[in-house]
Here is the input.
Amino acid sequence: MADGENEVMSQKMRIVWLYVLPILAVWGATLVLLWNSPFLDADRYAEALYASRLMESAGAGQTVSLRKDSALAYWACYPDVAQDAYFGREGPLNLLGAREHFDRHGRAEGRIWPLTEDDCRAAQDAN
Here is the structure.
């Protein structure tokens, strides 16, 4: 090949790589982000959900200590929930598991959302 042809081929290869490299970089970054995504890892998803719920409760004016007291009171009222693998004390939602159970099931079952253990005792005495 002549030098002119080599230079044209070289220029064409540079143009191809100018388009190919960014596409490969974006594709690679997408794979890395998906690999580390909470949607592909149940534990990370639970952590992200927990953090999101904490932020929601903080925005609603609830302190973490109030949420903790309420969760402990709910679990004290309802030991079956406290032992539950998902909503209980050892569940992935941690303190938010109690409120999540109440919102999903407890209200419909006639359970109360106590602020303290005294609230729970008063409600149980009333029944």
In short: The two ends are 96 Å apart (CA to CA). The mean pLDDT is 78. The helical segments are 3-35, 42-59, 64-77, 79-82, 96-106, 117-126.
